Amino acid sequence: MRADARQNYDHLLAVARDVVTEQGADASLRDIARRAGVGLGTLYRHFPTREALLEVLLRASLDELTQKAGELQTSSSPDEALASWFREAVAFAHRYRGVVALMAAAIADPGSALHASCVTVRSAGTRLLLRAQAEGMARADLDGADLFALIGALGWLGDQPSFAPRIDHLLGIIASAVLTKPASSDVKGERRRRIPP
Amino acid sequence: MRADARQNYDHLLAVARDVVTEQGADASLRDIARRAGVGLGTLYRHFPTREALLEVLLRASLDELTQKAGELQTSSSPDEALASWFREAVAFAHRYRGVVALMAAAIADPGSALHASCVTVRSAGTRLLLRAQAEGMARADLDGADLFALIGALGWLGDQPSFAPRIDHLLGIIASAVLTKPASSDVKGERRRRIPP
DNA sequence: ACCTGAACACCGTTCAAGT
DNA sequence: ACCTGAACACCGTTCAAGT
User: Fold this and answer.
1) Cys staple from A177: which of A139, B71, B157, B177, with CB 3.0 to 4.6 Å?
2) Where does the source fall among the domains of life (chains A, B) (predicted)?
3) A124, A66 contact by CB (below 8 A)
4) pTM of the full predicted structure?
């Protein structure tokens, strides 16, 4: 990568971060190139699609989210881990307005530049969900795709100015549907062999 | 209203119904005028905003939804009434792709042509919610705005091809968060005086 | 009263021409 | 290798000119 190309790439990314913060995921690509003082073709050379640009913008946050899931896997109880990761995932979905719609499309389109990232996040959530389910702490009739969908739904709610103020409350309500009662272990009769005899 | 105007109005509406069904609520207005064989200005004369057009397109369904709420108010038990109206409302939100986002914006904007319709629907839902809450059959920490938001969220989920197949399932999950346990009356000790002594 | 379509200011995307 | 911007095909919205 030539030095001038590298510089354009970096500057484009910095400007894109600002513009997408202001205008959302469907921001004008023309505007980004313009503000970066770069030809429109240069933007398309570095980021052939909108998804490719957003993938780079989101990568760091997505990695954090995946890493967080790994940490919670061992540091917290299954229900707390799932609950706080869920909260974190919804917060991520708020990073840029309109990003959830792109992610919803990307998860079903292997050709999207965002596909891999979305699958990774969904997998991270699935692992937390499975652990909670194994302990009877999460609804059994739910899979990773459902969890991903609910994160998306809450992300969308947060994107709507009329609903955003209630988003924490709505998150609590939906979380309560995912997490089953405390189900404090070994109380319903049949032990679950948390420590083998 | 002159005869030719009336005819344009009606034809425009019929064409709009088709185009919005195909392309969603953000369909091209130009395309609608074109397919209707009418000048672009004619469309704007009859429907000064996109919301005005959709308001007419949705009015019948919205009225049905409000009426249905009234019927359920007396025909069903509070929890069943709320559950089945909720289902109906989500189905409505599916009528045209992308309509929920417009409604979310409209409910916060008194200037929108869709504002009144949205408020009416929200009120209808609020009444069903309050009745269920009075009987302890719905979560107490929920108001009509929250219910409206949840309907919107499910509508959005249904708009995403990747989530649409699971929409009935997700609806059940969210509905279970709104409806509290059966709470079969008079079981928790304090009666609620359903029939005055 | 009502209709028309050009005009304006925007898009996304591509690609020949330049350095 | 990389950059540029004109070109093309679209938008939404307005409004002078027509009937």
Assistant:
1) B177
2) Bacteria
3) yes
4) 0.92
